[in-house]
Automatic annotation (TrEMBL):
<feature type="transmembrane region" description="Helical">
    <location>
        <begin position="149"/>
        <end position="171"/>
    </location>
</feature>
<feature type="domain" description="ABC transmembrane type-1">
    <location>
        <begin position="16"/>
        <end position="210"/>
    </location>
</feature>
<dbReference type="InterPro" id="IPR000515">
    <property type="entry name" value="MetI-like"/>
</dbReference>
<feature type="transmembrane region" description="Helical">
    <location>
        <begin position="55"/>
        <end position="79"/>
    </location>
</feature>
<dbReference type="GO" id="GO:0005886">
    <property type="term" value="C:plasma membrane"/>
</dbReference>
<dbReference type="GO" id="GO:0048473">
    <property type="term" value="P:D-methionine transmembrane transport"/>
</dbReference>
<feature type="transmembrane region" description="Helical">
    <location>
        <begin position="20"/>
        <end position="43"/>
    </location>
</feature>
<feature type="transmembrane region" description="Helical">
    <location>
        <begin position="191"/>
        <end position="213"/>
    </location>
</feature>
<comment type="similarity">
    <text>Belongs to the binding-protein-dependent transport system permease family. CysTW subfamily.</text>
</comment>
<keyword id="KW-0813">Transport</keyword>
<keyword id="KW-1003">Cell membrane</keyword>
<dbReference type="Pfam" id="PF00528">
    <property type="entry name" value="BPD_transp_1"/>
</dbReference>
<keyword id="KW-0812">Transmembrane</keyword>
<keyword id="KW-0472">Membrane</keyword>
<keyword id="KW-1133">Transmembrane helix</keyword>
<dbReference type="InterPro" id="IPR035906">
    <property type="entry name" value="MetI-like_sf"/>
</dbReference>
<feature type="transmembrane region" description="Helical">
    <location>
        <begin position="85"/>
        <end position="108"/>
    </location>
</feature>
């Protein structure tokens, strides 16, 4: 049965809202996890503020392990854990769990990359003034790297948009679920095109906002 695209728009908007909700919550939670993980990677590495080579090597390996798992495999592999956390393995709430686990180590590496861009001379100057490692992280590392961190979080957000679409394979809701349920399984080309265009629009807006915020902070 052919679906009238004009009559279907309310469902498309609902799916768009679900996608934005998934991405927003996942990004917030993954950043809360990934930011401290990235800081730990920087301060414990060779010549870091709290250099600890054995810890760094082990911790880095764990981060790389989770980062290397393809999202679609992770999505299926942790279904029992997802069901334990949210009481269900389908729906928008259920999709957030694997999205957070997938993106947190990725954000950790992005944060690490941003912090490593801070000039060593700035860190040395803070140390010579008697600043503690925590003070250097809070008052030097993060402010100096903030513009880069925002750009990298923009990249992470775009990755989450793509991953949220893949969550549709297991009934995760959002535009991906709509595209699979109607655009692919029912051969509704119009709906497939509409969902793809909306995803592209979300990505473009995200990149534009991220670029603007990064430049604004860099000028200050």
């Amino acid at each position: 049965m052919q679906v009238n695209l004009m009559e279907f728009w309310p469902r498309i908007w609902e799916a768009t809202y679900q996608t934005l909700l998934m991405v927003g919550i996942s990004l917030f939670a993954a950043t809360l996890i990934g930011l401290p993980l990235g800081i730990i990677l920087v301060v414990t590495r060779h010549e870091g503020l709290l250099e600890n080579k054995p810890f760094f090597n082990g911790f880095s390996t764990v981060v790389n392990f989770f980062r290397s798992i393809p999202f679609i495999i992770l999505l299926v592999a942790i279904l029992p854990f997802t069901r334990l956390i949210v009481g269900s393995s389908i729906g928008t709430a259920a999709a957030v769990v694997p999205l957070v686990i997938f993106s947190a180590p990725y954000i950790a590496r992005l944060v690490e990359s941003s912090l490593l861009e801070v000039k060593p001379g700035v860190i040395e100057a803070a140390e010579s003034m008697g600043a503690t490692p925590w003070q250097i992280v809070r008052r030097v590392y993060i402010p100096e790297a903030l513009s880069s961190i925002i750009l990298n979080l923009t990249i992470a957000t775009i990755g989450l948009v793509g991953a949220s679409a893949m969550a549709g394979f297991v009934g995760g809701g959002g535009l991906g679920d709509l595209a699979i349920s109607y655009g692919y399984q029912r051969f509704e080309t119009d709906i497939m095109i509409a969902t793809v265009l909306l995803l592209v629009f979300i990505v473009q807006i995200t990149q534009t906002v991220g670029n603007f915020a990064s430049k604004k902070i860099r000028r200050q």
